[in-house]
Amino acid sequence: MCDDEIHPGLIQDPTISRRRFGLLTVALTGVATVAHADDSVVEKDVAVKTPDGEADAALFYPKGKGKWPAVLLWPDIWSLRPVFRQMARRLASSGYVVLVPNLYYRTKKAPVMEGAMSFANPQDRETITALARTVTPTTAVTDAVAFVAFLDAQPQTNKAKRVGVQGYCMGGPLAFRTAGSNPTRIGAVVSFHGGGLTAEGPDSPQLLIPKTKADYLVAVADNDDKRDPTSKDKLKAAFAEAKIKATVEVYVGANHGWTVPGSQAYNEPAAEKAWSELLALYKAAL
């Protein structure tokens, strides 16, 4: 999971509205593209069977007839909540079938926290870190296999195309583990301010890189890089040795959580740049 030392003071507002989310992008795009996406995307609450029970999740896909590539979207440490539904809806409007699971379904249905959430609040910190500990390298793999199988079973999914996976915060390592669990099926892996990608020990996500056959985008937060400046170099070396196509980029001036609207660290220009790079990778790799 993400290291607690980078989180103090980080506040997440899980109640961000569709209208507010749409307006966040108007300044850069000139049009309320997300509002349009709401009219062109189907959203469903679904239950996904896993070896440990049923995971509550949200599924999104474009309206109308057709089949599209699938994407598994791992949320950050605060798990499935309205802002990640909005992000998935926006991605679906670009032509993808998107699944966003609740990371902590074994313990509690989403949303797992209510109201504004902050690591500076000891009670919030204790609650969310306890939930995060329920996600292990083993459960990450079994869940990933189940989630990808669920996506492949959807009539809207184009199974001739490979699957994309993206993760935020602790979702970054989960994206790597997803690629390692099914290397022939996963074609693109994206980590946004992922934590622990180059952790010590035999379960380190970076050790999975040689087993995968995907293209990668690793977007690193500025303050994460300052805290561990060697991590990006380890990743670049691992990708080069495995001959895997990858972009590892530090977003200077953008701190942990910068891609998530409602985060205290949200940085709109940097978030839009990251989103554009995400879409470019998926277009090329899926």
Automatic annotation (TrEMBL):
EC number: 3.1.1.45
Highest taxon of the lineage: Bacteria
GO molecular function: carboxymethylenebutenolidase activity
Domain Dienelactone hydrolase: 56-284
One Pfam family it belongs to: DLH
Coiled-coil residue windows: none
Keyword Oxidoreductase found: no
Entry keywords, A to Z: Hydrolase
EC supergroup of this enzyme: hydrolase
Transmembrane intervals: none
Keyword Transmembrane helix part of the UniProt annotation: no
Protein name listed in UniProt: Carboxymethylenebutenolidase
Source organism phylogeny: Bacteria, Pseudomonadati, Pseudomonadota, Alphaproteobacteria, Caulobacterales
